[in-house]
Design a protein that fits this description.
The complex is a heterotrimer of chains A (99), B (669) and C (206). By secondary structure, chain B is an all-alpha fold. Chain B has 27 helices and 2 strands. In chain B, 52% of the residues are buried. The mean pLDDT of chain B is 87. Helix content of chain C is 67%, strand content 0%. The longest helix of chain C is centred in the N-terminal third of the chain and has 26 residues, at 50-75. The termini of chain C are far apart. Classes of the chains: A mainly alpha (99), B mainly alpha (669), C mainly alpha (206). The interface between A and C is large, with 78 and 97 residues.
């Protein structure tokens, strides 16, 4: 398969993830959509690694996975903390940055 | 030390006095400020004498010395130095200025004793003397303009000295505005001079003037007319004279110094100094002479009608300066300057005596309420008579010799200059009448209540009020002090008046026709380039004939005045009723103020109001407020994006990213 | 053969992604994401990235997703209101996402990268194998490796602090300020929380 296919697929998955971030209101689901975007990036990286014949892309993808894991940990911790304080789990409710 | 060094000292000492008084006014006890001021001027006077001696040491041809401290401005062909010119004319002027100023300072020490602005007064007065000396010592036209402007400021500061008095501040502003009109004339003249002659230094200017200009060429006439605007504004000649009577709002010594003896003579000095230019523009010189004549007659007629003592003397000043202007315009330079000197003596004396009388009247200046001070104020009365005699050109006094010398010269020049001579004699007659109007009203007849009180030894007191409008005042700073000083009780005042009285009597003997001509000889080096000066010689016979005519007119005038004011006092009443229109015309000062109000003041105010209402409020504010409103509007719109919703921000991020991507796709294709 | 595998993986990935976005119940979204991850692992295998594929399944689908499952179970279902407070969001979001996709596709397809039209160079044996990745990690990318482990450590500490239980002395109620929780957590949700609560109470729904 041409590498182009993988890249277009990656673009599609990224767009779906972006749309999900904008549409959904639950912080949990937003985090999930963020995962989608990250994985789309991973796919692109690995595809380019294959295309170049260079394994650096794969290393990059691994590190992205590590970072994603850390981010998930912190994000979920925030959600748990919010839930504990009986805050509504709805990003629209956090409007203190209103100008 | 050389003459120029003395001249620099003459310039520097009054400035130093001013600064000491200005900076240390809080810590100067009692009358120290007055003595410091007077001392500075006295030292300056001594240095002027030294400068005179040093100048006389030099041969007659080498009596034009210049000296400069540093270059004031040097760019684009301009080279203006802070330089002075010490020649007979300037030495003469500094002697007169410092001499008379010294005496007036002495007078002021007592006169303003109880005024709370004592130190301020003396610092202003010293500053004025410094400015006047700068004006006359200046060696180039620009420095003259600097001195001119300083003098204008000093005049304003001193006229509005009692600054809480409304009439005084208005008068100060009026004086300043008219002065500025004169300044504009001078500056425009400076532009032309630089364009035509390429330099501002006097000596090179005067040397190249005859070559550069042909007689009555348009440019040189324009230059001279502009100079005349400046001179007439400063010297209160027609039509720029309206400020001088109002300037009487200032303290009496100020009136004596500035508006009689020195500042108003600056115009005369200017015309005399610029005589090489005026020689190339005889038209301008003639205009000057005839305006001087008109002023002379006008002021003399008004002086017959007004009732405020100081204003009579003010109009007298305007009239006498008319004589001086006529003198220097027709080429009688030495005569005109001689009259300047003698006028300084007797006019300052008259003002000082008037100050003493007003003090005795507890501040009232209305001559209708004064009478019979002969026994109450013997010293003041005597000196008032001396001054009036000199003013009226009584035979033997300084005024006699100086005034008639001008008129004799005019007669000698012949042609239509005879009109000047005849007009001058008519003016002399009128002068004698109003000079003795003052004397007979104030000194003779039955004593008024204040005089009677004073004979018993009580100086009259009255509620402090504005002498012109009667408004109530107090005696705190900004208004005159509570105590009034008369010459009989204040030694400094008496000494000053006595010295001036001697000058008014004996000053004339400097130039007795056929006997001596001290001033002529002394001033010759400055004026020898003038064909009028060297070409026209008044023969002794003509001179004595003129003197005889003048003496006759003077005595006739005194006699008329005696009749009008002592023998048959109702005559003036009857004249007033019969010639009501003439009287109204005179007492309204020929309606000059009203004309200026309608022609100049009101239109300008209307323009100002229009500019404020339309240009400022609508246009400028509209643009500014419009800009503010626009920015605010944009801000409101942009603020809509700050909704606080995270997802909205995320939408903006994604949207922006998409837009950027689109842009790059387009650009790269 | 390869194409079939590719399309299978692609369809699985897309289905999982759409499921994440579209499914109402967050628990179902999590499961959809698991499907998506496994499909991606398959795609990685096709791209000669064996180790990455394995790591994807073990780490991502195995650990991170389990984490999500726990939290989803803890938090429970969230009622997402139908009404959209931000005007235009419902319309613009899919539009912009689509625009993004179109632009990226144009960029990819229209690019002059010649190699994209090919399958890529012949890769040596062992390309993408654990041995090769391991060698790279410990040789060329050692600093990166160590930094990543530091990051993990920091994240672990952060998680403990964030979700840790409050010191009981301040009271059981959530409103009282606590000290056991780190500085980041209380200051962010606490004032934000009371403010948000106030707004909510005052009918702050715009």
């Amino acid at each position: 398969m041409d590498v182009t296919w993988y890249l277009v697929l990656s673009a599609l998955l990224f767009s779906i993830g972006a749309g999900g971030v904008l549409i959904r209101r639950s912080p949990l689901v937003i985090l999930l959509c963020l995962e989608l975007m990250l994985n789309a990036g991973n796919l692109a990286l690995v595809a380019f690694a294959r295309d170049r014949g260079d394994q650096d892309g794969q290393i990059f993808a691994l590190i992205v996975m590590v970072v994603a894991a850390c981010e998930v940990v912190v994000g979920l911790g925030l959600i748990v903390a919010m839930f504990r304080r009986r805050l509504p789990l709805n990003v629209d409710e956090m409007r203190n940055l209103r100008g | 030390m050389s003459a120029t060094t003395y001249a620099w000292l003459v310039l520097g000492l009054p400035l130093a006095g001013c600064l000491v008084n200005a900076l240390g006014w809080r810590s100067l006890p009692g009358r120290a400020a007055g003595w410091i001021g007077t001392g500075a001027i006295a030292l300056a006077f001594l240095n002027s004498i030294a400068a005179l001696v040093a100048l006389l040491d030099k041969p007659a041809s080498g009596r034009e010395l210049t000296s400069s401290l540093w270059t004031y401005a040097s760019a684009a062909g301009l080279d203006i130095k802070l330089g002075i010119l010490v020649d007979p004319l300037s030495v003469f002027m500094i002697l007169v200025v410092t001499g008379v100023s010294m005496l007036i300072h002495l007078y002021s020490i007592s006169y303003l004793e109880s005024d709370r602005g004592y130190a301020r007064y003396f610092s202003y007065l010293n500053f004025f003397v410094f400015s006047m000396l700068l004006l006359v010592l200046a060696g180039n036209f620009v420095l003259l303009i600097v001195g001119w402007a300083f003098v204008g400021f000093a005049s304003y500061a001193l006229i509005s000295f009692w600054y809480r008095r409304n009439t005084a501040t208005k008068a100060g502003m009026k004086a300043f505005v008219i002065n500025v009109i004169g300044d504009v004339g001078l500056v425009l003249a400076a532009f032309f001079i630089f364009r035509e002659l390429g330099t501002f230094e006097y000596l090179p200017m005067f040397q190249s003037a005859p070559q550069q200009f042909s007689t009555n060429e348009g440019v040189v006439v324009a230059i001279c007319l502009l100079i005349l605007v400046g001179a007439f504004a400063k010297s209160a000649q027609l039509p720029l004279h309206t400020w001088l009577p109002d300037a009487m709002e200032g303290p009496t010594p100020v009136s004596a110094l500035i508006h009689a003896a020195t500042m108003v003579t600056a115009g005369v000095y200017l015309i005399a100094r610029m005589h090489p230019l005026f020689l190339q523009a005889p038209t301008a010189a003639d205009i000057s002479a005839f305006l001087g004549l008109a002023t002379l007659i006008f002021a003399a007629t008004v002086a017959l009608a007004v009732t405020d003592l100081k204003r009579i003397i003010a109009y007298s000043t305007i009239s006498q300066i008319g004589y001086m202007v006529v003198g220097v315009s027709i080429g009688a330079y030495a005569a005109g300057l001689f009259h300047l000197m003698s006028h300084a003596f007797f006019k300052a004396l008259l003002f000082m005596a008037a100050g003493s009388v007003i003090a005795a009247m507890a501040g009232t200046q209305n001559i209708d309420r004064m009478s019979g001070f002969r026994r109450a104020l013997p010293f003041t009365s005597t000196l008032l008579i001396v001054g009036a005699l000199s003013l009226a050109a009584f035979p033997g006094t300084a005024g006699f010799f100086s005034k008639d010398e001008i008129l004799a010269f005019a007669a000698e020049r012949g042609g239509f200059y005879w009109i000047l001579a005849i007009g001058g004699y008519v003016g002399a007659f009128l002068t004698a009448i109003y000079a003795f109007r003052i004397v007979f009203r104030v000194v003779y007849r039955e004593p008024c209540p204040e005089a009677r009180k004073l004979e018993q030894g009580h100086l009259a007191h009255a509620e402090p009020q504005n002498p012109m409008t009667g408004e109530k005042e107090d005696t705190d700073v900004g208004f005159p002090g509570p105590e009034h000083q008369i010459a009989e009780r204040a030694r400094p005042m008496a000494i000053a008046m006595a010295v001036l009285g001697l000058g008014a009597i004996f000053g004339g003997y400097l130039q007795v026709p056929g006997v001596d001509h001290v001033l002529d000889t002394f001033l010759a080096p400055t004026f020898e380039d003038s064909p009028l000066h060297s070409g026209i010689h008044v023969s002794t016979g003509t001179a004595w004939a003129g003197l005889a005519a003048g003496a006759a007119l003077s005595l006739l005038g005194i006699a008329t005045s005696y009749y009008l004011y002592v023998v048959a006092p109702q005559t003036t009443e009857r004249l007033r009723e019969r010639a009501h229109a003439v009287y109204a015309f005179l007492i309204h000062k020929w309606y000059f103020d009203e004309v200026y109000d309608t022609l100049v003041y009101r239109p300008l105010i209307a323009i100002g109001r229009f500019a404020d209402a339309v240009l400022e409020r609508v246009v400028v504010q509209g643009i500014v407020a419009g800009a503010v409103g626009a920015v605010r509007g944009v801000g409101v719109v942009v603020r809509g994006a700050q909704s606080g919703f995270v997802r909205a921000y995320a939408l903006l991020v994604v949207g922006g990213f998409a837009a950027l991507g689109l842009y790059f796709l387009i650009v790269s294709s | 053969m390869v194409q079939v595998a590719f399309f299978a993986g692609a369809i699985g990935a897309i289905a999982g992604a759409v499921g994440v976005v579209a499914l109402r119940n967050p628990f179902y979204s999590v499961l959809a994401l698991v499907v998506h991850l496994v499909a991606l692992a398959g795609l990685f295998l096709l791209l000669y990235a064996q180790f990455v594929a394995a790591a994807q399944v073990v780490v991502y689908a195995g650990a991170v997703m389990v984490l999500y499952v726990f939290v989803a179970a803890y938090v429970g279902a969230v009622e997402e209101p139908i009404w959209e407070p931000i005007p235009g969001q419902r319309l613009l979001a899919p539009l912009l996402a689509a625009a993004l996709f179109v632009e990226l596709s144009i960029a990819i397809l229209g690019t002059g990268l010649s190699a994209l039209d090919s399958e890529g160079p012949t890769v040596p044996l062992g390309f993408g194998s654990p041995a090769a990745i391991g060698t790279l990690l410990l040789e060329r990318f050692l600093v990166v490796f160590e930094a990543a482990s530091m990051l993990l450590l920091v994240a672990a500490v952060g998680a403990v602090v964030l979700a840790g239980r409050r010191v009981p002395s301040a009271g059981a109620r959530g409103e009282a300020p606590g000290q056991a929780i780190g500085p980041a957590a209380p200051s962010a949700p606490e004032p934000g929380g009371s403010g948000v609560a106030d707004e909510h109470a005052a009918g702050g729904v715009p």
